[in-house]
Design a protein that fits this description.
Blueprint lengths: L4 E2 L4 E3 L4 E3 L7 E3 L14 E5 L3 H8 L3 E5 L5 E3 L2 E7 L7 E7 L2 E5 L21 E6 L11 H17 L3 E5 L5 H10 L5 E3 L1 H12 L8 E2 L6 H4 L3 E4 L7 H4 L4 E6 L8 H4 L4 E3 L7 H11 L3 E7 L1 H10 L3 E4 L20
Parallel strand pairs: 3-4, 4-5, 5-6, 10-11, 11-18, 12-15, 12-16, 13-14, 13-15, 16-17, 18-19
Antiparallel strand pairs: 1-2, 2-3, 7-8, 8-9, 9-10
Protein name: Ligase-associated DNA damage response exonuclease
Enzyme class: hydrolase
EC number: 3.1.-.-
Length: 338
């Protein structure tokens, strides 16, 4: 039997009568992580990992939230449900379902390289694996993050020596936390857009300990950030908010920077290939580690990735969903201002 059906509301488990990452309000929603393409408001109740709960509260407001730990089993109408680390962002989870000896796993978004912040990806054995494939083409192969961090540090340091402000565009939930540690090692003051500092404060209030970010507000003068570092969401690029920081150089952290020419098309000075999603090799490694006999591919280069799996002896088919990619998944957080 199909433990998960693909419906116009999202991934639905009929036996358990719940949805996973639905894109419309439902009675019971299991949420893999708090990015806006996977976590929508209006549902009656939410089940998520304990790290995700305060982020959902920031994004969606007060609701009925049920928090679980990694590997904790909850039985819903006979279906055993557990959450396991996906390594994408803080609290990001894979959802494991078991019923009558049949095991399905929905990956949510994931990456295999341990960033030291998100709990490292854990491969889960299953019969059926539903996997994202945002970067499901062979051209997407990431450098070790330590090398990317060194490139960012070098760029920021050079800008500082030239008295130019370094504006780094990074998602407020995920990427911004990853780059803080290497940026702090420069001892150059770090400032943040409201979307960055609100998430930062919420995480610090809930037991995380990230380096200091100074919020940019009406009291911040040009001398405060001249030659220093500013982290902003990609939605701030090209807005009047940016103009006050001149002279500055703009760098963007994204897996899409792997493709030559994207820096020019995005009108930025530097592109750093840093993604919170698995690359081509990571996707293949994850699929093989599950031992799944059947694979469904969602959001991303799903047709190409599904075709490759079929050609290499793994039964796969693509599924259309409303989940986004690296360009659409996190900046519309409620309660956030400039």
């Amino acid at each position: 039997m199909a433990l998960i059906n693909f419906t116009n509301k999202g991934l639905y488990c009929s036996q358990g009568d719940f949805y996973i990452d639905p894109w419309v309000p439902v009675n019971k929603a299991i949420i893999t992580h708090a990015h806006s393409d996977h976590a929508n408001g209006g549902s009656q109740s939410y089940l998520c990992h304990q790290f995700t709960t305060p982020i959902l509260q920031l994004r969606l407001g007060d609701h009925h939230y049920q928090s679980v730990q990694w590997g904790e089993v909850i039985t819903i109408n006979g279906v055993k449900v557990s959450l396991h680390p996906a390594g994408h962002i803080i609290g990001s989870s894979q959802v494991r379902l078991e019923y009558n000896g049949e095991v399905w796993v929905f990956s949510g978004d994931y990456k295999l390289e341990d960033d030291g912040i998100s709990t490292a990806f854990e491969p889960i054995k299953c019969h059926t694996f539903i996997t994202e494939c945002t970067f499901g083409l062979p051209i997407y192969k990431w450098q070790p993050q330590a090398k990317v961090y060194n490139d960012i540090i070098t760029w920021v340091t050079n800008n500082h020596q030239q008295q130019k402000t370094s504006i780094i565009l990074a998602y407020s939930l995920g990427k911004a936390q990853r780059i803080l540690q290497p940026l702090a090692s420069t001892n150059i003051p770090i400032y943040g857009h409201g979307a960055i500092t609100n998430v930062h404060q919420m995480l610090n209030n809930n037991g995380w300990h990230f380096p200091t970010i100074h919020k940019i507000d009406g009291q911040t003068s040009k001398n405060d950030f001249m030659g220093n570092i500013i982290i902003a969401p990609q939605s701030a690029d090209g807005t009047s908010w940016m103009k006050r920081f001149q002279p500055y150089n703009v760098g963007v952290c994204s897996g899409w920077m792997q493709v030559r020419g994207n820096e020019r098309r995005n009108n930025v000075d530097a592109g750093f290939v840093l993604s919170d999603h698995a690359d081509w090799d990571g996707l293949l490694t994850a699929v093989k580690a599950t031992g799944a006999q059947q694979v469904f591919t969602t959001h991303g280069f799903k047709a190409a990735f599904s075709r490759y799996l079929n050609e290499n002896g793994i039964a796969a088919q693509e599924v259309v969903t409303q989940y986004g990619d690296e360009t659409t998944n996190e900046d519309n957080l409620s309660s956030i201002t400039n």
